[in-house]
Amino acid sequence: MERHCCLPTSIKENPTIEMENQNRDPKHFIAFDLGATSGRTILGTLQNGNLTLKELTRFPNAVFRQGERFYWNIFSLYERLREGLQAAAKEGIDIVSVGIDTWGVDFVAVGHDGSLLGLPRAYRDPHTEGIPEAYFSEVLSKEEVYEATGIQIMNLNTLYQLYALRLERSPQLAAAERLLFMPDALSYMLTGRMVAEYTIASTSQLLNPRTKRIEDRLLEGMGLSARLFPEIVMPGHRIGTLLPALAAECGLPELPVIAVAGHDTASAVAAVPAENDRFAYLSSGTWSLMGIETREPIINKQTQRHNLTNEGGAEGTVCLLKNMTGMWILEQCLAKWRSEGRSYSYGEVVRMAAEAGAFQAMIDPDDVSFAAPDDMPAAIRAYCRHTQQPAPETDGSTIRMIFESLALRYRSALESLQELAPFPIERLHVIGGGSKNTLLNQFTADSLGIPVTAGPAEAAAMGNILLQAGAAGCVGSLQEMRSIIARSIPAETFMPQQGRVWNQAYDRFCRITKNRAEQ
Q1: pLDDT tens digit string along 456-472?
Q2: How far apart are CA 32 and CA 39, in angstroms?
Q3: CB 452 within 8 Å of CB 493
Q4: Which of 42, 136, 212, 485 allows an S-S link to 31, with CB 3.0 to 4.6 Å?
């Protein structure tokens, strides 16, 4: 594996001296952290065992809709990355390297001449509705797919996107020489080099977590080949350097571009400030991903029954997790209310929820009706009617219901993980933007009955940066990364309260969601 190091080779003979010298002077790294709704350029500085962050640029990201099809504007994202590099140049500092993390599953088709074949489809595109069932009927069974990949069955997975494109006779797919996952495609646009990074590839339901390679038979059954994907590389791999013209345009040297944990969740999990391995994590954002970290995949009838997923992590670890809807429902409610002239700040959202009545109604955040409705508050009211519950009458009661329902959904996910974990789960670490929601953190502790430690909010960017630092020889291990995070950020712990009340609420939640699923 090729790695970039920012030190003279003469120092590398003694790793201890190397680490001490690396930490004495500040080392600067650029992280591009892209989510489904926004992206940032983050300058990370590592010095004396502490990491500090500075946001250089922030930009919106949104699904581009044309008729009934949903796309990502990757060319616009490239422009935002270029602007981020220009902002970094204005800092007037020496930068060690650059890394990119994004959401999972989506991909870009590349032609035989190296050009991108149009805009990539977005995972919320409805063209995959019903596609898993069609794939299981015509290609491989559900059991065979899960046994080969250990990945949660979701219609948005790359496997089913590819099958949908085959059924559509997609000209992009027919002309594709290569398929690149989103962070790999953006790195390709920066460097001209193609790779498939392990953690982002693992989200696709194409990767065998035992061999860490694309599973040929999943593609061959629909007339495609694993050769469409480049070589799998691990986090820390040096992809290449900024293209000369791009570097000159941005006022930077030809900086190394490092394949970090390209899946933002994997970068975030690398930044969990845990003291030991007896923890679960909750990456809280548009999606909620709850899991544990293991050294080997866990694939059996229990994991399949609970629809758990084995995704890639830093240092070749496996993130055994449950992928759930997160702040998406709230985000869509807030967008609808803004269109009606009611805008709320973050503080107002939390205050309104705290003041609303408890447990007036409950929803299953993963119900299909909340996937992509035109009117999220209306979808919530319809769900309540279908489950014989009173619909929330105010925006505050809607927000409270969302928070309570998320906390209760987290409990069901934790119970699944507790059945399978090779260790007792003593604490939940909440990372990502949702970790700033103190009310939801307390609800989660109450619902789960274990301590909840919140932070860092910038976990994906921090993990991205420290994985670059590891590639540069500035950090020696995953546990050292986590110790740096623990020293660098203040953490807040929420202790469980009102256990009896939340136990009763959970029983009711289970009845409502089960009845809804059977309708």
Answers
A1: 999 999 999 999 999 99
A2: 7
A3: yes
A4: 42
Q: Which of 240, 232, 200 has its CA nearest to residue 215?
A: 232
- Annotated catalytic residues are 264
* pTM score: 0.89
Please tell me the distance from the alpha carbon of residue 40 to that of residue 58, in angstroms, as a whole number: 4
d(CA 111, CA 387): 49
Give every residue of the chain whose pLDDT is below 70, as ranges.
Answer: 1-23, 516-519
Question: Cα–Cα distance between 397 and 375 in angstroms, integer?
Answer: 17
CA distance 207 to 422: 23
CB 284 within 8 A of CB 166: no
Q: How many CB atoms lie under 10 A from the CB of residue 17?
A: 12
CA distance 397 to 151: 35
For 116-131, give one letter per residue: b (16+ CB within 10 A) or e: bbbbbbbbebebbeeb
> What sign does the dihedral 414-327-464-310 (CA atoms) show?
positive
Q: Is 356 helix (H, G, I), strand (E, B) or coil?
A: coil
